[in-house]
Structure to design on (850 residues):
């Protein structure tokens, strides 16, 4: 069936509901180039401002999945399960989590992305390990899954090509912040990836895409529905992103922190979240009798899986990580409790230090980033180091420090905030 | 000053007011190509759905005027005055009007357009006159104005190039129907055209762009304000467009009807509107003691001005007009009064017969169109001709007849409706 692009745009513009046929046609025509970029931009803005019904989002997601291949892991002997985070500052959770879940008996076929803006990208972090390769063929993915039980790599161009094209368009047309478009973008890739179960880590707070819990809950609910409708056992955790996760924000520094966690140590919040997500992933995979993830961190089996995974993708788990050439310490201006350390400010600082990219074609510095010497609730003394900034050039510090202005406060002891806010199934 | 396109889009998307600097930058950057088509499409949809304040529309219009040249007719000894119609079916008014006003002593420098969709274009109509040229240089325009007192020609590429680009974009992105964008598009061209006074004929009804009087009034008010703010004496008439104007819809048939009017005859509604608009144009030009336009139709001076105008643009006012090869009569299905004859249905029929174009690059048939043998309120007898369809090929008739299904009704005598609904100054 064929439609007129302007009619489809007008339907949504005037507050109407797009038919299944209109959606199928629009997504397919856009992928083929029969709907021009400017027409899809106008439609995306109309969707952002007018919204979509649940059946519309489901069909839109479905059309994006059908624009490419849907991967199939039925040859594997283990059930598949995966996690997706909506993005946060210091969110290295995938790094310890994928091998941790593999160590407990499930297979993790994770297609991941690169960072854009103030949140980092999992692939950028892993690429700081010498030799590690993000691009694998489907056959190589299967081989790594068989060898290591987990694989984290870049999505190939055959997966949801409609989403790939639309995501790049939304990025430059102010149409990113739409719950139906965010949900369908994430879920089309995760469903096409072929995982049997999925845990969504929906971040809420200053450093997250969703600044308030009600938007985050709506996004989580939309994605859980989409997964469930497509036969993927899906659950979402709403987790706090007002302050960075862990004590490292950047690329190599986050790898180092992940290795600490896999060695049985590491910051409490990273361990808590990794274990909670791992348990959900195992439940989703139907492995209710599996080894407990906390045990897998203690007994070294998660670390063994990590080493197998990194090695299978060409990396050397024992190689030295890139070391920053320059560093700058931010000291506590007075004595008291660190009452606030803003995730967004730290994220922007790390980005400006070189850890992130402003445009897709930019390169990142693996050594750049921020190390936190205190977390909210910690007591600090005047003059003690609060943060260390790492960069390849000293001229990066000035603008990073500007991003940190007003991003931390010393004062009274803050009330402890829960890391895991809600669970949506 | 430079801005980020996504920030500008987000401001409007989130219901904010664009600053003068943002508007100046956006219009200029788009004209230069520094804002991509997809970004402007997204912004246009946000403007359509969020609206613009009066200062925003004024600045947007101003920026579009400043994107090109502003013409200057101060060398002429007569005051300048012009008319713009928002477009209707059978709306050939410019053809008799421009020479009529010239005959009464004002100069009419009209830049006009071609038809797109179900409403015809003044240039397409005039081009059915053998030899007549729509494209003139500024020097040629001045020369025709001096010789004939009126000129009707195509706008050059130097005039409001931002609007030219934006209009083409809006046409394919479902962003035409925005009062701020319509008003700024029309007024930027008319103000850049350099006329000292302007009368707007804002059409209301089934065959018009504005289907109801309140939208039409808002558009008229916005345009009158824009003209006034830019020093152009501007007034608007709201006029009915539920049934075609006159008895001819097409190209050559409308030229023939215009010549009838200039000979002192022609349909009453065309004469009424032409005279009313001419009086307003003369008042705008400050010529309160001028000859009355009704007199100029009777005494042949308007016809003389027409002949001078057509001749000065290379046309032969005595040449035979193109004659349709094929025709088809629609007969009255019963006896009674013609209670309704829908402008939109007739407009679409004429378009499908070949008089209009679906895409800018299409050519039009000069001979194609519709002749009306009865107007609403006329008594008709079963079997008498109601409409004659004209086309170059017989295979055009079927789809034209489909457009006419339900477009006319025979019944009781309808209440007479006023042609001129309101005046906004």
């Amino acid at each position: 069936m064929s439609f007129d692009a302007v009619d489809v745009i007008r339907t949504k513009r005037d507050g109407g509901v797009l038919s299944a046929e209109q959606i199928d046609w629009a997504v397919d025509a856009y992928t083929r180039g029969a709907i021009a970029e400017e027409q899809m931009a106008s439609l995306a803005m109309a969707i952002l401002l007018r919204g979509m019904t649940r059946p519309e989002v489901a069909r839109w997601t479905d059309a994006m999945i059908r624009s490419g291949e849907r991967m199939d892991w039925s040859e594997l002997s283990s059930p598949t399960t995966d996690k997706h985070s909506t993005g946060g500052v210091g969110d290295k959770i995938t790094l310890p989590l994928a091998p941790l879940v593999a160590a407990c008996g499930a297979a993790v076929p994770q297609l991941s992305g690169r960072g854009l803006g103030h949140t980092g990208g999992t692939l950028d972090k892993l690429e700081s390990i010498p030799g590690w390769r993000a691009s694998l063929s489907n056959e190589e993915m299967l081989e790594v899954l068989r060898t290591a039980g987990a694989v984290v790599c870049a999505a190939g161009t055959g997966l949801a090509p409609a989403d790939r094209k639309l995501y790049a368009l939304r990025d430059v047309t102010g149409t990113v912040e739409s719950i139906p478009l965010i949900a369908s973008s994430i879920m089309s890739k995760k469903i096409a990836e072929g995982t049997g179960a999925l845990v969504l880590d929906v971040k809420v707070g200053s450093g997250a895409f969703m600044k308030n819990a009600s938007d985050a809950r709506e996004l989580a609910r939309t994605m859980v529905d989409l997964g469930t409708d497509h036969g993927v056992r899906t659950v979402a955790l709403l987790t706090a992103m007002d302050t960075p996760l862990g004590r490292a924000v950047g690329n190599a520094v986050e790898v180092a922190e992940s290795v600490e966690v896999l060695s049985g140590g590491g910051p409490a919040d990273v361990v808590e979240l990794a274990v909670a997500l791992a348990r959900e992933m195992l439940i989703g995979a139907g492995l209710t009798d599996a080894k407990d993830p906390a045990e897998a961190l203690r007994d070294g089996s998660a670390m063994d899986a990590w080493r197998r995974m990194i090695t299978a993708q060409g990396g050397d788990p024992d190689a030295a990580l890139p070391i920053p050439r320059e560093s700058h310490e931010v000291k506590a201006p007075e004595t008291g409790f660190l009452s606030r350390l803003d995730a967004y400010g730290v994220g922007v600082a790390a980005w400006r230090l070189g850890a992130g990219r402003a445009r897709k074609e930019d390169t990142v510095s693996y050594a750049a980033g921020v190390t936190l010497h205190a977390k909210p609730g910690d007591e600090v003394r005047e003059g003690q180091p609060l943060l260390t900034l790492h960069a390849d050039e000293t001229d990066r510090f000035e603008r990073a420090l500007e991003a940190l202005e007003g991003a931390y406060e010393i004062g009274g002891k803050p009330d402890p905030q829960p890391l895991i806010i809600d669970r949506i199934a």
